[in-house]
Write a structure and sequence with these properties.
single chain, alpha+beta, Rossmann fold, Tumour Suppressor Smad4, 2 domains, 15-stranded mixed sheet, two-stranded antiparallel ribbon, 9 helices, 17 strands, binds adenosine-5'-triphosphate, nucleotide-binding, ATP binding
Length: 299
């Protein structure tokens, strides 16, 4: 168990994350922390970007920063910690709709169990992504098919029907799927093509739909997994590719799959990205860097 005398804990709660039932019982979580000797300051988020501000405002004298929310809240807290420039440990009690990153870290979505993981005090380090100059991400930067639904699905729908809301919103995208011409450079290779989807990820699960093999992904190896999917020419190509993706077999001629530390994307025309499920405006060129072991997390 961690040395509780030293444990000044900032607890950030997104009160609107996840489904209506069950909502995070943050009072119970606070009681648990306090009963184990933690000195807790709790703050609720009130708007987008607030979690980052709260970390920067209240995080200076804390050694643990815990958040409850979904991938969006976690992303904002990580962005705050990266800017804080102080050695703090992150704790996460998932209460979002998809909680992709929590699944990769094997964190329980049962509130008390996740709180106990934090109280037990075992840490591991994980890589963090940097998209461009200042946009951090915990598990994914993606573009193309279905990524719009990750940030455009209304919160009210997510609250009522959970992850299915993303899937339904994504289906609206199908008639509009069109390829983007992209050139992708790593220190070792160049990939170029008309891609309908691309993802730079540090996760076992991409949008809760596409799964990567646990043996292939290490969240702290300084490398991203990168998947680029080309536009299939015929319905037969499309169905073969879908079968390959479902089998986690990425050798199909329409799929480029590789690992890299840093990767630069060159786009003919800008298109929006999704960063940990939140909207990011398009650019003509972006470098995505893996910041190795950048965050210490209780997991
Ligand atoms: N009080 C608030 N009112 C409205 N929006 C908020 C509030 N607090 C935080 N937000 C924003 O809500 C958005 C969604 O939060 P989050 O991603 O944590 O939950 P979720 O969407 O339910 O879960 P997931 O991303 O795992 O599906 C984020 O962009 C966050 O900044």
């Amino acid at each position: 168990m961690a040395d509780q005398k030293k444990n000044k804990l900032l607890y950030i709660v997104n009160p609107i994350a996840g489904r209506i039932f069950p909502k995070i019982n943050f009072k119970r979580v606070i009681e648990l922390f306090q009963s184990h000797g933690f000195d807790v300051t709790m703050k609720k988020t009130a708007y987008k970007g607030h979690a980052t501000e709260l970390v920067l405002k209240y995080g200076h004298d804390k050694n643990i920063i815990v958040c409850s929310g979904g991938d969006g809240t976690l992303n904002e807290v990580i962005s705050g910690i990266m800017r804080l420039g102080k050695d703090v440990t992150l704790g996460y009690i998932p209460s979002g709709t998809t909680n992709d990153f929590a699944c990769s870290l094997n964190l329980s979505d049962r509130m008390e169990k996740a709180a106990m993981t934090i109280i037990k005090g075992q840490t591991k380090t994980v890589d963090i992504g940097l998209f461009g100059e200042k946009r951090y991400f915990s598990y994914i930067a993606s573009f193309g098919a279905f990524t719009g639904s990750s940030y455009s699905t209304p919160q009210s729908h997510k609250n009522i029907i959970g992850h299915l809301a993303y899937v339904l919103e994504g289906m609206k995208d199908i008639p509009n799927i069109r390829p983007h011409h992209v050139r992708v450079e790593t220190s070792e290779a160049v990939y170029e093509g008309d891609y309908i989807f691309g993802a730079v990820s540090n996760s076992l699960s991409i949008g809760g739909i596409l799964k990567l093999d646990a043996n292939c992904v290490n969240l702290n190896d300084g490398m991203f997994e990168i998947i680029l999917i080309k536009n299939p020419k015929t319905p037969i190509d499309l169905s073969r590719m879908i079968i390959s993706l479902k089998k986690k077999d990425f050798k199909d001629k329409y799929i480029d799959f590789f690992k890299a530390t840093d990767v630069t994307f060159y786009m003919d025309e800008p298109f929006p990205w999704s960063i940990d499920g939140e909207y990011e405006a398009g650019v003509n060129k972006v470098k995505i860097q893996n910041l190795h072991s950048a965050i210490k997390i209780l997991a």
